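Q: What residues go here?
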């Protein structure tokens, strides 16, 4: 069925986004026909379609932060908590990999894709060297169409682990080579660099292959910008919108890079065509994880909003196609995020000198207009005090940069041994001291992640389980 969305200008960052999202959801109704339904659990039925919405680095504290900030600053409910977690099935997943207690994204996603523990850095290959069947390999074998959407490079740890097998997540060219073999029906995100030969601007391939051309010659429509994505009507789609990772919402050029919600609309539109056995779609927002590493609370907040807008798209699709299972989850927690109360300064420990993170502090986050990653780019490798002051004054209104943090930043030194992103963590600590949105690390933590499921098969995900159980349940739903 024809789906017209060339007019779409969805933003997700400003108050007018509610109108854009309403229009987007109305347009999505044209993707497929189907009896409207409640999307209740129907535990005895296997889903025709599976949509996994995956916020990398997000655990319960991040979800509640998204909910509260959306209510205060956008005047909107938060679909993750208010629909999927409340009305669906809610569970928790442990996250440890094979060996250590704290996972990386490759090991976590591999367990959730294959049902097997792997070592950190491995992509769906177990310590004994066996390539385990990934979710997308199993779905394709079952006759389903498959799609991958991410704000990271398409060959990053999460989409790769749900699709292909390689010993190291760092072997970017090999990962792209394996995508060329698997040929997902939909593949969207950043990472154009390893699809293009080094002779082309931005290309990094060492073998001269033009993998974009190979996908095009094989029948995929190719989109390289938001406008091109809006014009695509084909059932197979390759969308590459950045050489590396896609931008944070604070920095994103909407003409160059589509939002997570816009990519989700396009993916559902493509996958719904010629799909008698349904599809499996993974939609990842990687910026939730990258913001956690940087201790960037304003960017985390907006990444969660962008993710939630995509969840609303998926839920509208499921409302009209109740044989669809929608799952919302993450792979691990990043940053040890902990909104709290704190002293305004160390001059006094009296309660009168204490403040608690609240509405005023959320509004301080809202006024920030640049991600810490972009600020790092502007500062360069040898930050100068004048440039630093100008950037903070312009993009962090109302904040002051404490002398101790300034000295560390200009000297290129970290806060502590577990804060390794410089200067991100130092500016993040400035924000923490004045808002109460603190961070315990720049790395991952062992906090269990939430999983919410709504639709046929959702009951499998109830309760406290291991992340390998998540993968096993998905394979069971595919008849394996």
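A:
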């Amino acid at each position: 069925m024809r789906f017209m969305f060339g007019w779409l200008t969805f933003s997700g960052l400003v108050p007018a986004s509610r109108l854009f999202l309403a229009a987007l959801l109305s347009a999505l109704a044209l993707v497929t026909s189907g009896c409207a339904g409640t999307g209740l659990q129907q535990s005895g039925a296997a889903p025709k379609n599976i949509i996994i919405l995956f916020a990398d680095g997000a655990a319960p504290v991040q979800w509640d932060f998204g909910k509260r900030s959306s209510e205060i600053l956008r005047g909107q409910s938060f679909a993750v908590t208010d629909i999927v977690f409340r009305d669906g099935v809610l569970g928790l997943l442990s996250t440890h990999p094979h060996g250590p207690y704290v996972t990386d994204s490759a090991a976590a996603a591999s367990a959730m894709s294959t049902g097997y523990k792997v070592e950190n850095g491995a992509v769906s290959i177990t310590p004994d060297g066996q390539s385990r069947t990934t979710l997308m390999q199993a779905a394709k074998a079952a006759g389903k169409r498959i799609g991958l959407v991410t704000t990271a490079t398409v060959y990053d740890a999460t989409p790769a682990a749900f699709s292909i097998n390689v010993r190291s997540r760092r072997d970017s060219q090999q990962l792209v080579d394996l995508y060329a073999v698997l040929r997902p029906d939909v593949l969207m995100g950043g990472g154009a660099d390893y699809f293009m030969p080094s002779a082309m601007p931005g290309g990094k391939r060492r073998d001269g292959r033009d993998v974009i051309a190979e996908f095009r010659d094989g029948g995929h429509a190719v989109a390289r910008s938001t406008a091109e994505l809006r014009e695509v009507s084909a059932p197979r789609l390759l969308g590459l919108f950045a050489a590396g990772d896609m931008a944070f919402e604070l920095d994103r050029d909407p003409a160059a890079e589509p939002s997570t919600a816009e990519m989700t609309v396009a993916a559902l539109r493509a996958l719904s065509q010629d799909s008698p056995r349904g599809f499996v779609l993974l939609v990842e927002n990687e910026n939730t994880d990258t913001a956690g590493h940087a201790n960037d609370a304003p960017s985390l907040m907006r990444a969660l909003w962008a993710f939630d807008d995509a969840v609303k798209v998926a839920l509208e699709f499921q409302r009209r196609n109740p044989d669809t299972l929608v799952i919302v989850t993450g792979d691990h927690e990043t940053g040890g995020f902990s909104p709290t109360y704190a002293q305004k300064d160390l001059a006094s420990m009296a309660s009168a000198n204490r403040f608690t993170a609240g509405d005023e502090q959320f509004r301080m986050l809202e006024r920030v207009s640049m991600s810490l990653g972009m600020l790092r780019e502007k500062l360069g490798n040898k930050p100068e005090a004048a440039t630093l002051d100008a950037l903070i004054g312009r993009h962090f209104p109302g904040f002051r940069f404490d002398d101790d943090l300034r000295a560390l930043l200009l000297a290129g030194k970290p806060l502590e041994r577990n804060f390794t992103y410089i200067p991100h963590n130092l500016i993040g600590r400035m924000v923490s001291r004045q808002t109460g949105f603190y961070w315990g690390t720049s790395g991952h933590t062992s906090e269990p992640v939430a999983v919410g499921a709504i639709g046929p098969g959702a009951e499998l995900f109830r309760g406290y389980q291991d992340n390998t159980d998540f993968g096993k349940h998905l394979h069971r739903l595919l008849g394996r």
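A: Context that may help when evaluating the design: Residues 297-320 form the longest helix (24 residues). Residues 337-439 form one domain.
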